[in-house]
Design brief:
Dna Ligase, domain 1, 5-stranded mixed beta sheet, D-amino Acid Aminotransferase, Chain A, domain 1, Rossmann fold, 6-stranded antiparallel beta sheet, 3 domains
Length: about 325
């Protein structure tokens, strides 16, 4: 969010937009906004009530939700009543669907880039049955929670080594199959997990801007497995066609990110993230300043916003630098 606000302010040469950012704590993003306010520790309907009152109090014209986005999308009419338009990635139903990968995969119709073959499980018995089916088709399998972010809970199942051997070898995102089964055996039931074919090819992250089901702009980044090699802006036609269809199928809007990975030379869909990615700054090096395009297009209409052509083939990367943060308020 910090990078997105910096990009908007740099591109907004006419000073059209005044950015207000709220969060439970004053982190680094607070310094990128024109104004920052602490959010109370609220969830659910109480948080939505607070957001409506906040927008009314500050005369907010456009609200881009992060926390409780599906509830806020569902309450768009309440925000409209106080003069605020909600720039949500999708309807409440779509946002809930995208958070549940098992349910989402079941709805995907994308021959260009089909999702990995996946079976959900909530017990050891279900896992064993799913493993028998998928292992007969695919040489490597992986697991991940049906609801998760940032890759938390993802692991490739290693059939030869224990978790201790994997740890001592320093290998990330891997887990011993026998140890995993032993762990499941100690649980009667658990949250829905996914057993999936493992896709071992090149990964692509595509930062997108949509206009209520129409793809306005997409910047695909091809990732490298070599440390420090950066990423390449790679707008392959098959990727652009796939994200255009997903945008239309789910009536996506505003800023979102789509993840793909190759398997056997074929493109496969991993997920749609209903938010901008952490690599949005790298994507904008390709020309289009996506956060500003999304905001200005939603505000004034995309026919009034220029979308520059992509600088295809360039290599991009990120680097960090130290900053001083505002002092925390004392309790």
């Amino acid at each position: 969010m910090c990078t997105a606000m910096q990009l908007i302010r740099q591109e907004d040469r006419a000073g059209r937009y005044h950015l207000i950012y709220s969060a439970p704590a004053a982190g680094i993003a607070a310094s990128a906004a024109h104004r920052f306010e602490i959010e109370p520790a609220l969830t659910g309907a109480e948080y939505v009530d607070w957001c409506v009152a906040f927008c009314a109090r500050h005369d907010v014209g456009i609200f881009v939700p992060g926390w409780e986005a599906s509830r806020i999308s569902a309450a768009a009419e309440r925000f409209a009543a106080v003069g605020t338009r909600v720039m949500a990635v999708g309807s409440s139903d779509v946002l809930n669907l995208l958070r549940n990968k098992a349910a989402f995969y079941a709805t995907v119709d994308l021959p260009l880039a089909a999702p990995p073959e996946t079976i959900p499980f909530t017990t050891l018995t279900q896992f064993d049955a799913a493993h028998t089916v998928l292992r007969a088709k695919h040489p490597r399998l992986c697991v991940k929670p049906s609801k998760s972010v940032y890759g938390l809970g993802f692991a490739v199942l290693d059939e030869a080594r224990s978790c201790a051997q994997i740890l001592l070898a320093g290998d990330q995102y891997q887990m011993g199959l026998a140890d995993f089964r032993a762990g499941l055996a100690g649980l009667d039931e658990f949250r829905t997990m996914l057993l999936m074919e493992y896709l071992d090819g090149t990964e692509y992250s595509v930062d997108c801007v949509g206009d209520d089901g129409r793809l306005v702009c997409a910047v695909p980044r091809r990732k490298s497995e070599k440390p420090g090699a950066g990423q390449v802006i790679d707008p392959q036609p098959v990727i652009l066609a796939a994200v255009a269809k997903l945008t239309a199928d789910y009536r996506l809007n505003g800023m979102f990110n789509v993840q793909f990975r190759e398997q056997g030379g074929a493109l496969r869909l991993l997920e749609i993230n209903p938010r901008m990615s952490g690599g949005i700054g790298m994507a904008c090096m390709a020309g289009p300043v996506l956060p500003h395009i999304a905001l200005a297009g939603f505000d004034r209409g995309f026919d009034k916003v220029e979308v520059p052509p992509l600088r295809a083939g360039i290599r991009v990367a990120e680097w960090s630098q130290p900053v001083q943060l505002p002092m925390l308020e004392q309790p």
